[in-house]
Amino acid sequence: MEQRDIRNLALIGFMGTGKSTAGQMAARFLGFEFLDTDQLIEERAGRTIPEIFEQAGETVFRELESQVIELVGQESGKVISTGGGVGANSDHVASLKKHSLVVCLWANPETIYRRVSAQGNRPLLECEDPKGRIHQLLEERSPFYRQADVLLSTELRPLRDVASLLCRHFREAQEECRNSKSAV
Ligand code: S3P
């Protein structure tokens, strides 16, 4: 791995891949604080994500998202869970890599559909054919998600195991990072 400054663990990936749940568990295991970029956006805007989409539109939401990605660059000792659109933007992935090990959580479209239908609250899927939209968005976004340092499937794996694997990847990457620094 090239010399990196790995202070945080950042999670990218599609809606419903378990970023928040596995991220919160991983934060507990690592003794880190948990941050959620959607939550930061809501706090800064004083509105919920569906309200922002409805009242201001997706473009404004994406601008707020960019501001928050810039802000989290100052963090250390955090698990940073991101909204599904963050990992679909090369600049954002590159920005996260400046301070974090970036892990993309993965799931099949059918699993995603099942999980998000149970949760609701996703403006992008408020359409006639949410299943089709998931397939289409996943296809468009896959090349970007693949820019992560690690791709981790959440299929057939309890989220607790996902969280343990996240910690293992993070510790290994930090170790690697320390070794490459001391070798210079
Ligand atoms: C979005 C995913 C959502 C939220 C917003 C847009 C996306 O976050 O940021 O509704 O573009 O995929 P989750 O991935 O946490 O659901």
List the helices and strands and how they pair.
Blueprint: E1 8-13, H1 19-30, E2 33-36, H2 37-45, H3 49-55, H4 58-71, E3 78-81, H5 90-97, E4 100-106, H6 109-119, H7 130-145, E5 150-153, H8 159-182
Helix pairs in contact: 1-8, 2-4, 3-4, 6-7
The structure holds shikimate-3-phosphate.
Characterise this structure:
There is one protein chain. This protein has a five-stranded parallel sheet. The two termini are 14 Å apart. It has eight helices and five strands; from the N terminus they run βαβαααβαβααβα. Helix 1 (19-30) crosses helix 8, helix 2 crosses helix 4 and helix 3 crosses helix 4 (58-71). By secondary structure, it is α/β, with parallel strands linked by helices. The protein has one domain (8-178): P-loop containing nucleotide triphosphate hydrolases (Rossmann fold).
Q: Please indicate the percent range of residues in DSSP E strands (runs of 2 or more).
A: 5-15%
By CATH reckoning, the class would read Alpha Beta
CATH architecture: 3-Layer(aba) Sandwich
The global form is: globular
Question: How far do the termini sit from each other?
Answer: 14 Å
Strand order of the largest sheet: 2-3-1-4-5
Q: In the residues, how many domains can be counted? A: 1
Number of helices: 8
Radius of gyration: 16 Å
Order of helices and strands, N to C? Answer: EHEHHHEHEHHEH
Tell me the helix content: 40-55%
CATH superfamily: P-loop containing nucleotide triphosphate hydrolases
Q: What can be said about the biggest beta sheet? A: 5 strands, parallel
Bound compounds, each kind once, are: shikimate-3-phosphate
* Low-pLDDT regions: none
Give average pLDDT, whole number: 96
Number of separate strands: 5
Structural class: alpha/beta
What name does CATH use for the topology? Rossmann fold
